[in-house]
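WARN  no MSA supplied for this record, continuing single-sequence
INFO  ligand: 1,3-dihydroxyacetonephosphate
INFO  echoing inputs
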Amino acid sequence: MSLIKTSQLLVLAKKHHYAIGAFNVANMEMIMGAVQAAEELHSPIILQIAEGRLFYSPLHLIAPMLVEAAKKSKVQIAINFDHGKTINLMKQALDFGFSSVMVDYSHENLENNIFMTNEVKALADSYNASIEAEIGVVGGSEDDSTSLQVKYSNIDDIKYFLLHANTNALAVAIGNAHGHYAGEPHLNFDLLESISSLSNVPLVLHGGTGISKEDFHRCIQYGIAKINIATSSFDAIYSSIYSKQSNHQNFFEVSQAIVQATKENVMQHIEMFGSAGKSRGQ
Ligand code: 13P
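INFO  complex generated
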């Protein structure tokens, strides 16, 4: 049906109290599995690739597949460039037709983060695309390169940021981390509630793997409208292929297993996020 602007999905999700799953993918089979899941549940989704993963999935190969998959799908799909740090690559993604870019300068000082966010917003506007910015540090690593300590978003920094930066969505650090949590994740819902009361900008939760259904629901209640899921899809594929019970006889059975494992994981998350049945215009 359609490739859709990310911000359009997020505004509706926030208004109607559900979240859009933003699923990181690395190859054609993962794209197929995620699209099948969304179509079966009539759910809008976001597909995304992080800048740090382009070594494995070069942009000039994965981008056309992502954009075509969205255009040909029966549901609304947005394509996001996740954790963009290099302007030239963000521009390339927009040239390929991505619906949004995440500009991640959260590791820099506040003024630089604001400056870069505004630069990328102007760029994305010229493509009729939207952006996501980040403030605070989400722990772990989005591409296995480092392992960062969680740094909670500071409420005064966020006030200042929202006053001076123009963004369509804001990723927050409330105790969430990329990859596997060392123990139970402890999300700071008081902080999330305070952030949410500051503005109407849809909020984004990175590090969705390992968070419980109940915590997802509380996050959505306090304004989270996009939830990123990567590791649990990769884990599902890995265990489907390498578990003792798996008995794949050839390459094509492995290829189908990747599609199926991704599909099941995406479906589970769509159900938890409440976005099933929310794709419009079918
Ligand atoms: P997980 O790998 O923890 O699911 O996080 C994904 C993510 O936030 C990508 O930006």
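Residues 251-273 form the longest helix (23 residues).
INFO  checksum written, moving to next record
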